[in-house]
Amino acid sequence: MNSKYKVLKFSSEIFRDTEDLISVEEPLEISLKYKLENKWNKQNLSITMRTPGHDKDLVRGFLFNEQIITSLNDIQAIESYGDKVGQYNIQNKILATLTNAENINITKIKRDFLTNSSCGVCGKSSLDALEIIKKDKTHSSEPKITKEIIIQSPDTLREAQSEFSKTGGIHASGLFDSNGRLIELREDVGRHNALDKLVGCALKNNQLDPKTQFITCSGRLNFELVQKVLMTDIGIMIGVGAPTSLAIDLANKFDITLIGFVKRDSFNIYTNNKKVIVS
Q1: DSSP codes of every residue in 90-106
Q2: Residues 238 and 262: beta-carbon distance below 8 Å
Q3: Is residue 29 within 8 Å of residue 91, measured between CB atoms?
Q4: In angstroms, what CA-CA distances link 24 with 32, 187, 219, 249, 262?
Q5: Which portions of the chain are predicted below pLDDT 50?
Q6: Looking at the DSSP assignment, which residues form a beta bridge with residue 27?
Q7: How far apart are CA 269 and CA 104, in angstroms?
Q8: How many CB atoms lie within 10 A of CB 16?
Q9: Predicted confidence (pLDDT) per residue in 118-168, tens digit
Q10: What is the pLDDT of residue 109?
Q11: How far apart are CA 13 and CA 275, in angstroms?
Q12: Cys-Cys link to 76, which of 32, 85, 97, 259 (CB 3.0-4.6 A)?
């Protein structure tokens, strides 16, 4: 979703009035509804800044990646609600009704998620916290991908984006098979939201197959993005930018092959090079 804005542009030593396409950013308030002791409860979960569109995929992926749900069977319904507001006349509230209320840790939700953040793990202090919800490592040697596929994947992602070429201000995450075929793509102004949307869509369409797939993201790779990929059991993550130290530590801990700084003739493998065909 984009909108036209008037700008004063300087180019070739000349100022001129023109219009520019800008990616829309709007808040999304995510709430949960669940039943405890035969009484319906509603809990505000998070406010995230997102690009409107595929909001239900965003919520599915967010809930799954944070392990509030463990499968789509834990969701009874996802519905947008409230008045249509702002210059874009859209609903900025969404409610997920859950069926797994007996497994909900309300104290954990209040502690970890009641923040103005697009990433649920912000504020968690260590890698050890993940071991509570994630015990298994990814497959140590599957799938296998070639250097050519690694180098091509960011270009494939960019060419398939609907918004980046228009605005230059939006991130993308793509699900690929080991032959380099793009299976699914999602975009958002937030890197975390783009990945949540991708995972939510893949779950909805039953597309996840960790032994044959990898994920490529625009931008840098940080802890939160690696954590979200880890929840899918996909063991290869590629980014066009740099990873952070904690992203590398997390990838190494769970045997994820983390690849960054992908350019037309180079890339860096930071962890577990067994999944890359080097001969």
Answers
A1: B--EEEEEES-GGG--H
A2: yes
A3: no
A4: 25, 12, 19, 34, 28
A5: 114-126
A6: 49
A7: 38
A8: 10
A9: 444 443 444 555 555 677 999 999 999 999 999 999 999 999 987 665 656
A10: 64
A11: 50
A12: 97
Cβ(142)–Cβ(256) below 8 Å = no
Structure tokens at 114: 């009641």
pLDDT at 113: 57
119 is catalytic: yes
* DSSP code for 274: G
Decide: helix, strand or coil at residue 18: strand
* Of 119, 122, 201, 217, catalytic: 119
* Buried-state track 232-266, b at ≥16 Cβ within 10 A, e below 16: bbbbbbbbbbebbeebbebbebbbbbbbbebeeee
Structurally, how many domains does the chain consist of?
2
Same domain, 80 and 197: no
Burial 206-224 (b: 16+ CB within 10 A, else e): eebebeebbbbbbebbbbb
Token pair recorded at residue 229: 């990929």
Amino acid at 133: I
Is 271 found in the same domain as 150? yes
